[in-house]
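Record type: monomer structure entry
Structure origin: computed from sequence
Chain ID: A
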Amino acid sequence: MEDVNKQKFSDYLSLNNILCNVDAADEEAVLGKLLEALNRHYPKLDIEHAGEEVRARESMFSTVIAPGLAVPHARIAGLPFPLVAVASTPAGVVVKNSDSKVCMTVLVLTPLDEPNLHLQILAALSAVFEDADRLNKLARISEPTAFFAALREAETEEDMPVYLKAADVMSAPPAVLLETDTLGHAIRTFATTKSDELPVLDNTGDLRGVLALTDLLNYSLPKHLLWMENLTPIYQFQPFAEMLKTAEENKVADVMREEFVSVEADVPAVQLAKLFLVNKVSQLLITRDGKYAGVVELKSFCARLFWE
């Protein structure tokens, strides 16, 4: 069970599990050393099974979560408490599915049935290690005691909150739109991102609405055509051609929807589950004092809860 007295990432890290200046050819060698360190600290750990779980997760998602930082992690059934180990590799090792090298690898194993604790630890370590300058300084420390002291000094009381907030599980979308952008710009933005819905801001950063690909279709297709059973007379996509002719004149504000579901960044993350279900939406927009802060997509939210 979660220890409520542990409020920082370093509370889950022991000196025995800090490996400085590791000499390793690749990420697999680093992972092996980290698993061995955890096994020495907790002999009941099945390192072969744990390694398989970490690699299975890595096959779906990259372990590189920030420049220079890899965080291989897994949820292990039957594990009674979290296990954490850190390895610094100042020379850098190449990580699979990534073109960059990492100088710090943090292995995190958590109980399968404690998603909140799992997410808390990942959020806390990200807060500490995502600063590139701090990461490089920690990577150059050659002694575990000094590493641990520097880590403790870098942590703040806010690094590991008692509960996760919406801000802890949100991400930034690939792009945002402005009310004053043209539809032509919006179309090009959709074409170069994987998003099918984007937030729309005013020039002060306030959230004003959303624009989805379905909104573009709806804007292009006259409503009376939606009542027709057979659209073969317009097989040349004439309504869409007409829309494209004026795409550089019409504005996003003319097409966007002002109805959307938003939530403040400090709201408990568990509240998001209810909002997804009640509102039947695939994404929630996160605000901080009225300003746009980020987005939580349904698939990403479920991934964090169930399998990441």
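Annotation 1: The chain has two domains: 9-160, 177-306.
Annotation 2: The first helix runs from residue 27 to 41.
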